[in-house]
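Journal club prep — side note

Before the paper discussion, L.F. wants everyone to see what a predicted structure for a comparable chain looks like in token form. Sequence:
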Amino acid sequence: MNVTINQEVRLSEHFKLAELCKTSVATVDRNIPSHAAIENLKRVCSWLEKLRARVNPLPTSPRGGEVPIIINSGYRSPAVNKAVGGVATSNHLTGCAVDIRVLGIEQLLRYAVILLDISDESQEPFDELLIERNARGSYWLHFAVRPEGNRRKIRVLQVER
């Protein structure tokens, strides 16, 4: 059976299911989330919408226009997670996490502070806010929200990928 993701299914106003399931990893698996994982992705997208709303009143690039929140990785099937070197307990496996692309350390820190402010103001917990960097010097922001049992884990990590 050949199952694919409908490219137009929206998880929120600005985020589609397809962009939170995209992968460049070639596996037998099609990286299709369960219904529970889709509900978790919707929860994460509600945070992404709040982040996006707060980022866009800030000064934008010299070209002007809105600053999009770009997702490098969202849901990962077990095969995709293994292929990218993800840990066996990754929040990506349940659709509870996203890795957000940033243009540099300033944007990364700005996004992290905004997400912390959103949590403090709303009294809504998150599970992980991780500043990650690979050996090539690229940064991204890992952000996770679980349905329950959120730990408010904040770390800076060097990732070996």
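L.F.'s comment for the group: The longest helix spans residues 35-55. Keep this in mind when we get to the figures.
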